[in-house]
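Subject: sequence -> structure tokens, single chain

Hey, anyone have a minute? Need the predicted structure for the following. Not urgent.
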Amino acid sequence: MSQIFSCLFITHLRRYLLLCLLAVATSYSALAAEYRPLPPAPHSGLSPDWLIHDGTRNRLVLYLPDYHAPTHAYYQWLALNPARPFLISFAAREGQSLFLDNRLVFTAAATATYTLDLARLLPSKAVPGVHLLCVWHPQVAPNLSSFTDAQLKATTNAANKPVRTTLAQPLARSHPGENVFLCFLLLVGLLYGGIRATYQPGFARIYQLEGLWSRSAAQQDFLVKPTVTWLNILLVVVFSLSFALLLVAIHTNVQNIVILRRLFDVPESALVARVLLYTALIAGFILGKYLFLELLGYIFDVGELVLVQYREFIRTILFLGLCLPVVMVLYLGLNQTLPETVLWVSNGVVSLLLVGTVIQVARTLHRKASLLNLHLFSYLCATEVIPLVILLKLIVFTY
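Reply:
Had a minute. Here:
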């Protein structure tokens, strides 16, 4: 009996110990399941640790030089405040670019050592917070060891001995593709000059201020001329190129439109491709508006007004488009010193271009048929006012 009792006691004891171990293991696994690694805190200064993009898991991971292969793009989270300078120094090869929150802010024009203030490269309305710095070169891996915190170094030198610090490179306030914009602007000037020399009578008929406001038959001759001519097509292309330069250089928010980004995924650094893409889109919009007017003219039963409306639209937008190259000249000359002024001028010119075109078209249509008629007024709203509001929202009010 004693042996049987001892065997039963040992059996129950083992079961009790197994249950205790199982409970401990279960509680430990529950605690382990609740553990979540916290994201790395942004550094108050520049860190020697960099991140790379893991395409398989679609996230940024710590770059280990002895483990990961060198790549072309490196990232780092930084705490930036637009009101406080954040100076960094680095050695860059020609073509090396810096991005802040996936926005191109600097491209090295030549192989040299540069000093930049990242806080001044933020958008004008940026708030203090965490921002993603990206260093990228299209051909070779950037020299990460050359990146140093120039602000911290200057503070250390000032504590030891008063030293006058100077920037190795002027702060890159302006767009890094100014040479591209300058070449396109020269091309616009040559095209305008060549068209004027080739089609002088037609060119003068469009670009005369009296022609927009006079009611004489001679000045209104353009409204009865054929619309699809080589002169009009060439001028529309030049106008589209001027408008595209303005959008790429100043109104960079257009590239963040979801539909546009999904249909035409053009990198921010490909300035020439983006200018040509926007030129094609603007020219397509202007030339395709005739089909839109024909459709709505058929729906509203005002087909006799479509040709007059479209010809007035073409003449007005081409005439007011002469201001766009002037804005680009101001951008290239004053963007480094007066960026806010250039932005206000650009917004004003674009608003004048869009609103002035609608007003002039409405004025011309009112001569043909009174817009006090609710039917015609609804047609004008559908063809001119609603597109105007959409364009103002996309180009002016979102920047």
